[in-house]
Hints:
Elements: H1 9-12, H2 30-36, H3 40-53, H4 67-76, E1 82-84, H5 91-94, H6 105-125, H7 135-160, H8 164-167, H9 190-211, E2 217-218, E3 223-224, H10 231-244, H11 248-259, H12 267-270, E4 281-285, H13 298-302, H14 309-312, E5 316-318, H15 320-323, H16 341-350, E6 357-358, E7 361-362, H17 365-375, E8 403-407, H18 408-421, H19 425-436, H20 450-464, H21 471-478, E9 482-483, E10 500-501, H22 506-509, H23 515-520
Antiparallel strand pairs: 1-5, 2-3, 4-8, 6-7, 9-10
Amino acid sequence: MKKYIYILSVAALGLTACNSDYLDTTPQNAEDTSVMIESAENAELVINGMCKAMSTQYCGSQGWNGEGSIKTWYGNYPGADFQKCNYAGYVDIFNQTYHLMKSSIYDYFAWYYYYKQVSNANSIICNIDNASGTEEDKAFVKAQALTFRAYSFFMLSQIYCHRWSDEEGNTDGIVLRVDQSTGDQGLATLADTYRQIYADLDEAVALYQKSGKDRGYNKLVDVPEFYKPNLDVAYAIYARVAATRQDWQNAAKYAALAKANYTLMSNKEYKSGFNTCNDEWIWGVYEGAEQTIYFYAFFAYQGSNADTNAYRNYPNAISKQLIDQIPESDIRRWLYLVPSDEELAECNAAGRASTVKKDGKTVNAQLYTRARNEYGDRMASKSLVYAYMQFKLMCQYANGGSFPLFRAAEMYYIEAEADCHLGKYAEAQQLLFDANKERDPELQKSTKTGDDLLAEIKLYRRFDLWGEGYDWFDCKRWGDTIVRKTWEDGGSFLKAYVTTVGPNDGNQWTWVIPERETQYNGAFKNNTTASGEE
């Protein structure tokens, strides 16, 4: 009996480990693949395997888990608003040092992971037309594969390419593997990369509409199939891609389409831990207790109640510099341990934001007592306590749970940002108000225009989506400088993480092409820039 997405295609298509042939872009050989995709039903199993691949163990090292790793290591840690309270061991990833280390696992994991997904998508795209099954079934599964490929190409372009705004696409893009060949292939331009992503999404949309099909409900685990791509997912990816490319007309168009069938979560749902699908989630990653990945999981590093050393002793927190800009009437502030004036004075007197209780000693006792009284059920019993620590993201079960990749709120912010760039200020003001009115009963609709309105949209986006893996990606596409301050200077970061990173620093925030690709792919032999060499 098949259980959820424990599908053989994960192993058969080579999605299990960062081994020595991790850049082999062929699942097996062409003949094996054509046999595997001999029917639409088999192709559906491959899609299931790709969904499972978004949350599985990789690289024989804790913390590598597919989409959760992308959110943690690439989205949250190097951004402006996310902090580790008392651990400086991640300083290289926080301060963007690893971007230039071409042999580091941090540099090559995203390349490895997304090209494996591309490889599996291509196995369907290149073979499904000749497979058995109804035209509707084949159209739907091909659309899903195209959606996965477009998403993977886009994520690769955000990490390993310059911003669109740097030279409007006249820079290196990625390797556009759109078939099952494994030969040498150089980098396309960024403009060509976006053209391919758009083409994949256009075809996916047409095929979804042709099929007349949608994802269903998984009775075995009693959840909707939110973990699978559908038409709305293609729209949502299109909106995010267009915003990153500064194609504001399409960003607004597809954001509106993507959110049309979804409702913003209630305040109760917003406070429930972001670990269970609700009516706002457009696409997400499923993790259930029946398939836990333990200390590899996203929530093992991000869940406020995770009983792991990585979180219990080193909690995560929101930046004081961000949350100080949010009104106290906003209910989302409750999800962070924001000190009162009296508690803040106590922290200042102690010279630190920590409230460590160890060996019978307590520092900043007022804050510690309130944390245990108000948030005791949202943290591990032996968790240390720090000012500004987060209680937004929580494990659903032991160190695990599902999490969103796209939700309707993001689409409101994309549409508002696009409208602002298009000079449609009234529409942008309304979208910003609609996205936040339930969270703040005292909120008034903004009357700002131009850059002031854009800054407000960006502020609320940063706050609403905090911890969900957007931080660094947004700062990069906006070209915003990251400025982190110490406790003494009005911030809340450890000194090791205090930095100012401008848009032109650190190779323009571009991760170098991994050494394993340049050694494997002969097209890179004379391309020293792409290989990260001087």
